[in-house]
Amino acid sequence: MQEDIQQQMIEGLLHERGLSTPHHFLGLHPEEEGKKVIRLWRPGASSCHLELRGKEVEMEQVHDAGLFQCVVTHDTGLQDYKISYPNGLVAHDPYAFTSALGDLDVHLLGRGLHYEVYRILGATLSLHEGVKGTTFALWAPNASSVFLIGDFNNWDPSVLPMRFVEGIGVWELFIPGVGEGDKYKFVIRSQEGHQLDKSDPVAHFSELRPKTASIVFDVDRFHWSDEEWMHERHRHRNGALPLNIYEVHLGSWQRDEGHFINYRVSAVRLATYCKEMGYTHVELMGLLEHPLDESWGYQVTGYFAPTSRFGTPEDFQFLVNHLHKEGIGVILDWVPAHFPKDGHSLAQFDGTYLYEHADPRQGFHPHWNTHIFNYGRFEVSNFLIGSALFWLEKMHIDGLRVDGVASMLYLDYGREQGEWIPNVHGSNINLEAIEFLKHLNSALHERFADVLIFAEESTSFEGITRSVEDGGLGFDYKWNMGWMNDTLSFFQTDFAHRSHRFDALAHVMNYAYQERFTLVLSHDEVVHGKASLIAKMPGDEWEKFAGVRLLLSYMMGMPGKKLLFMGGELGQWNEWNVQEELHWHLREYERHKELHHFVKELNQFYLSESALWEQDAISEGFEWVDLSDKDNCVFSYLRKSASQSLLVVHHFLPGTLENYHLDLKNVASIRSLFSSDRKEYGGSGIMSASVEKDSEGITLALPPLSTEFFEVRFDQTGLSEAD
After folding, report:
1. Is 403 one of the annotated active-site residues of the chain?
2. Which end of the chain is less crowded, N or C, counting CB atoms within 10 A of the terminal residue's CB?
3. pTM of structure
4. Which of 247, 403, 476, 594 is catalytic?
5. Of the residues 456, 476, 609, 677, which is catalytic?
């Protein structure tokens, strides 16, 4: 090889200039006179050996920077020799292999349509040209060079340059002999000459914080045994089944002597608890890899990795598998709205604003001090959609709760005038985010028609759960933040003033069928000085517990699927603290024990009564009986299914109402099914066993701060007359 070409390659290897084609020079190449030459790069070394057909051979040093070569016979192949690494690994030469990326992969990546990006990018255990190893691939289109570092080369940032794949901005390198458990990172050299040490954005496993290296891991090894659940889960999609979600932060749900619990241990405990308590699904928050505990997992650095706080990806797969076998679905919090500024992660990844917008008016979130994804860049959109699909395919997740949708939809979210850039039409709607969300939901439902996608969206933006074909965003459910805000505001109101705010409770029915809703009492409502559920309640201790029973039974009565954050069922007085487990000891105290028993019974009652969930999404499933009694703060309604009608009566004030009349005519029979005021739940037990009925309606006693459920059958007309 000519001396000037050799010098150019060495300068690139020494980071003095960009190097994108190391395979053109290093590795096994034809030489003059029918020979071949092997070139190795070992900067700083004064000697170098390789193993050639089982014998150790000393190589010739051709440049004192660390370039060595060995002339071999023309019949020498890539499997005839091996090289050694500083950690003792002896394996075949990575620069003797062709690219591991196939033509179709390159084509789809180039168009931003490689939905299975997790099969190509990152660290993939592979058999390439007959040799076992790991293929590393990284999207960094603006880097001048990328080097691979890890356990195998003693983290030397100058030994293993990667090959640039023209047209798609990807760097790749197959390393024979590197396997599961090996730690690694990428060293990116920017066009300006800055060195950036980055974790793998598509890694499946990472070191436990505060360490940040990625770890090679095989997520295809786990043997799933949840076939029955996976075959039947489609039934939840049409909305005609109960959906009762327990929102869980694993790191603070339970701990052992203050320490995190492995996914496998949590699997057994959580499945047992959810079955006992009557929850159909768990929603796991904070499970994507993240560096800061206090972010609750909402500042994600690993979009393809379950956090290592609780074990390996295989341990996480065990958790999902076990929950499925016990009949519990798994929903995962997923965060495409923003990402943190941590230097090892996505921020200015290749020295440029790659995943985010360069202009902070578009690319930086002032509320959370984080970066905002550039949804208009197809590679970024593909990265996020690939992340979502990874969890559905490789981890068997049953649904995603998409965090921060409102912040994605509005360009001025959390910003003052002059801090945001209008769209091409001059409005505040983020058109690129809307197209991304449509693309996301279409892709997910096309490949997994049986999963549920929830939007955490707090505004009145229309069409959140309308199909993409009909002009909507395509979500299955929207968190009903309006119901939550109105409800908690009312319940925190002193009893003397509740009649003045009574209309706010009924307001939800003005829009209840504009979207498919989930009623939520989530983690966000029991932190940052908002107080726990029971601490929000006015009155004495008895009234506070009665208020929580009323709140939860009110949620169960109203149309919409249900979600409760962990700890609400215990009557925990303190706000949620991410650094400690729930206050399970409270169940030793009578009132808390009674409340816990009540939640269990309420959940089981909800599951057993089809009127409470079969027609959640259509107006035929709901009918007002009376919402006019502001003075007594009582309202009542019917919930209906094809086979059942339930009368639900809520009394939102202390004190008993004797001989209370409801103008519900044509009642053939009525019987009490459930009362939040039963003595076994800590209530007064005032409710009479029978309800009087006549031609004018029904008469009953209403306990203080209570919900009453009755099964009602009407006369032969089959119709109620609720005036």
Report:
1. yes
2. C
3. 0.94
4. 403
5. 456
